[in-house]
Fold these 4 entries.
Entry 1:
Amino acid sequence: MLSVKIRPMQKSDLDGVISIEEKAYGPHHWSKDSFMSELSNELAKYFSVLNDKDELIAYCGCWQILEEAHITNIAVTPEYRRNHIGEALLTTIIDECYRNMAKYITLEVRVGNKPAIALYEKYGFKSLGTRKGYYQDNNEDALIMWTENIFYDKFKSVYDRNVLSLKGKINIL
């Protein structure tokens, strides 16, 4: 079972984050300056994932504004995909929302990114529309996905069940 450490993103992580960005998003990725700005933004929450060799292998981020959180990105380096790291990052964001009393979570995802859509649906996100031509690299549409109130019993029971199942698939240190 893969063991990882998830911690708040640090400035020293940014070269690794940009490397993952380039692999995940090609030439239309965020700049190092964009991430530097995010790290100093009090509304932004960013996390890094390190493997057992302390190598950066994934990251995620969100903005929390009052009762809403917007997931800005979840990216895993290609050689570590399909190891439940993205799912662990999603639960990290949801846990952060619980701590900060954010009731609703939203995100955009490429309509062609079936694995990500399936993960979000597993955690109770629902598509509430599309943004036409949202992605600049190929004009692909984005699904706009939202959760219901994460404090509702219906959401919480699905979340708790998924987190319990996740514990048997990845070891988070």
Entry 2:
Amino acid sequence: MSKVKPKKHLGQHFLKNIEIAETIVNSLTQHGSYSTVLEIGPGMGVLTQFLIKNTTFKTWVAEIDKESIHYLKNHFPEITNRIIEGDFLKMSLNLYFKNNPIAIIGNFPYNISSQILFKVYENKNQVTEVVGMFQKEVAQRIASKPGNKEYGILSVLMQAYYHIEYLFTVNENEFYPPPKVKSGVLRLCRNQTHTLPCNEILFKKVVKTAFNQRRKTLRNSLKTLLPQEIVSLSIFNKRPEQLSVEEFVSITEMIS
């Protein structure tokens, strides 16, 4: 088998540029907090070929495409026993990695990239680093700071637990088939926050409720959650994109 046929329903766009692939892999900080790297959607192994050269960690891959799995087994026999066949979104990380810290890397399919990050969020105490390719707009949104129109639910949730850097942009013609949009590479490194000083389930609900009506002030968007005694506070005159992570934490504490 020479090549894997890209499948539209899986959102496959294979990176052609070897130098960019190597740069993405080298963007892992390798600060010693993990000894396992999980690549999501390796396709034909454009990142895998560089990952397996690094002996400071073991490379695992998660792939749902049967054709890609066959290709990987033929071209990278050294990781045959570390290919997880199936959907990353349905995977139990504990099943494969126990409670050991891991890093995640990948040219993520655009149609599930936000869901991948929500899964990272749910496993934030195990996933210490993420380096990934996203649709550029999504990457900018995740890295966006308060006050920008791109700032949203994923920005707040991920920035609560990760330092986020937008590394570089990749043009459409670097892929086969070329996507209709530019791509952006992000690095997320776990920060020092182990747990938030508030109810995390309520925090997530407050963030989602606020941004689901982002044009309204918090007084209106959160009215079903706000106790009467705090509804007149000036912070509720703001819109959600104006609030920092710390302010969302503070509001959650007030409500609870």
Entry 3:
Amino acid sequence: MIDERLEEQAASYAFESLEADEKASFESELAANPELAKLVDDLRSTTANLAHSAPARVPPPELESRILRAIQDEGRSQSSSGMPSWIPWALAAGLAICCGALLLGRTENAGSIASLRERIAGSEKQSSGLAAERDRALAAAREQQQQTSADQAEIARLNSERDALTRQVAELKQKEEALRVQNTTLAAKTQELGNKVTQLPQKSGLRDTQVLRLRSNMQSAPRASATVFWDAEKQEGMLYTVGVPPNGTDQDYQLWFVDPKFDKLVDGGVFSVGKDGAAEIVFHPKTPIASVKKFAVSLERKGGVSKPQGPIVLASK
């Protein structure tokens, strides 16, 4: 740290104008203070530069007049060949002018140094501000980039969901069309079956025919149905199905009689259903039936069973 006192001593030291004791004390301070030593070097360099670059300074007019009068007075009083007495005065005046110029240059140089220091401090402050602003801009850019990436991911997700929904809508429309066709087919089959029901007693001779409607218990085919025509006298009947799902190759549908006289269901035989959901079979009970209350159809393994084991898919009320 250099205070104003040390700056003044440094200037005097650079100009070789310090007293001996003050010079010794200053040189001790100079040896221990690198910053002070640098200031002295700068002042000496400035002094040397001023000697070559400082503009010529015109002495005050009154100084020139005083020097001329002194020379004239000395000329009158001096007639011998010794050193004129005006020369020391001229040297003193020149030295004074030079010292004044140097001191003025030092003062201007010190002001320039202070100004440069202020400008450096201002530039450093401005640089720090610009660096902080740059960091904020970079952070904002990174945040914006992350937000843009998130937005793009969200857009991609929404597009994917939209495409999935579009496919789902197309599939539902296809199913709707298939159900519409199926309903049309079922309506035609129902009409056909109704016609057969009307004509059956005349064609088959089943005058005393019991007719029962079997309804679906299947969630996958809620519209499936069957109609049974039963002649108790002949112990013979006919079964018509509509919209019943086709059975697998290792399965059979099996018809069952419900007779209050028996404590178990009576086997009415097995049958298969094609892809169109329709079947027409003639059946006979394995045991004579006196009175039929209900009919039921179960889905069993191939060849049938002695008592129901699979699910009851159709049943009358």
Entry 4:
Amino acid sequence: MGRSRNGRRGGGAEAVVEAVDGGLAELIPDRDRARAWTLLIDGAPQSHVDLDDPGHLSFEYQRRLGHVIDLAAPPGRPVHAVHLGGGALTLARYVAATRPRSTQQVVERDAALVQLVRRELPLDPNARIRVRATDAREGLAKVMDGWADLVIADVFSGARTPAHLTSTEFLDEVRRVLKSGGVYAANLADGPPLAHLRGQIATAAARFSELVLVADPTVLRGKRFGNAVLVASDTPLPVAELTRRAASDPHPGRLEHGRALRDFTGGASPVTDAAATASPAPPPSVFR
């Protein structure tokens, strides 16, 4: 496995560059935070972690998922969480910091990336986090029925969500794993004409009765490529509080739900395994 350390940055930390299963991983020190790092895979930013403050979420989509985590149960109450896609384990660290004694399972296909992150950005040894190096859907299949309060999907391969994680059959597995009243949240990425995003909303609506979508308004208007967080449950979601939190973020997000969200799908059909495709690749300008 190829590995190198690049020039020193703020605080004397060095960038770590290492080949992993999914491409070239880079851990870049944060100039403004002493023990914070950004993970890139083939130049695409994946995660940001502050080892001194795991409650700090830098990326806007991770902040939105953080709001979902905060509102999934009463403050501080431990939860059972499944994370599909690990990256630098940012959100698992966040749950462990904000909800001590939570039990978590992380499913990350890239075993070499898991080793890199564990070595360079070690987890709190007291955190109840189990990491499985396997495919997200295969790992989900091994979780017990009704185990999870929360399932978070943030899976990208070559900056695209794999096709087999976009279907109704995949969401059947998510529903099987969730407790009654549990919450599913997914980080989705799309750009104009938003066909993938509309299809994912229709797919979730075929399996869950309550949905909300949070994204930058320019993404929702189809003006640029970006992330959107889809939240689904079979019990009412905290729409008002999610709306308030998204609007007050450094990069304010807009929340859609109910009839407006149904209208947004534009008649898109649910996606099945037989017809599923990966999410669109982001244009090169996104990461410049």
